[in-house]
Amino acid sequence: MGFRQATIYYNKQPRLRGRSGWSLEKKLKLVVYSITSFTYFPIRLMSYVGFTTALLGFIYAGVVAFNALRGFPPQGWASLMTVVLIIGGIQMIMLGIMGEYLWRALDESRRRPRYLIESIIGQRADVTGEP
Questions:
Q1: What's the predicted TM-score (pTM) here?
Q2: Mapping DSSP to helix (H, G, I), strand (E, B) and coil, where does residue 72 land?
Q3: Which of 43, 61, 79, 89 could form a disulfide with 99 if both were Cys (CB 3.0 to 4.6 A apart)?
Q4: Residue 79, CA distances (Å) to 52, 59, 84 in order
């Protein structure tokens, strides 16, 4: 998370009895939670995929129009795919933008300080962090 790190070495002891309570479902849930809690990457990925999809739709629309002008009229599939790609891409871009707004609102609602205190010189802080 950007802070200084230290390594603590230890010898892992074998489990004495019982089984772990971490099922595959709980482990997958932890992975998803970890990815979505600390990064906006999935939201940005949605926007980039939407932009790429819409761009491909516009390029394909150009190809279809060019072929129609050359005397090869498009079949029903070509026009349908053009519309689906363009509208689907625009929807994904809009979802990415809404996600960005929600992410920023979430960051603001966490009320984290804009700074972190690494050490206090000349004062002693108690457990609650008050001087």
A1: 0.59
A2: coil
A3: 43
A4: 18, 12, 9
How many C-beta atoms lie closer than 10 Å to residue 90's C-beta?
A: 15
Give helix 76-109 / helix 41-69 axis angle, nearest 10°. 160
Name the residue ranges covered by the structural domains of the chain. 45-108
Secondary structure tally for the chain: helices H, strands E: 3, 0
Q: How far is CA 104 from CA 38, 51, 100, 110, 115, in A?
A: 12, 21, 6, 10, 18
Which has more confidence, 7 or 120? 7
Please tell me the distance from the alpha carbon of residue 95 to that of residue 43, in angstroms, as a whole number. Answer: 8
The 3-state DSSP class for residue 83 equals: helix
**Does residue 50 contact residue 90 with C-beta atoms inside 8 Å?**
yes
Question: How far is CA 48 from each of CA 42, 89, 107, 111, 125, rounded to the nearest angstrom?
Answer: 10, 9, 22, 29, 46
- What are 3-31's pLDDT values in tens digits? 677 788 889 888 888 888 889 999 999 98
How high is the pLDDT of residue 119?
61
54-70 residue pLDDT tens: 999 999 999 988 998 99
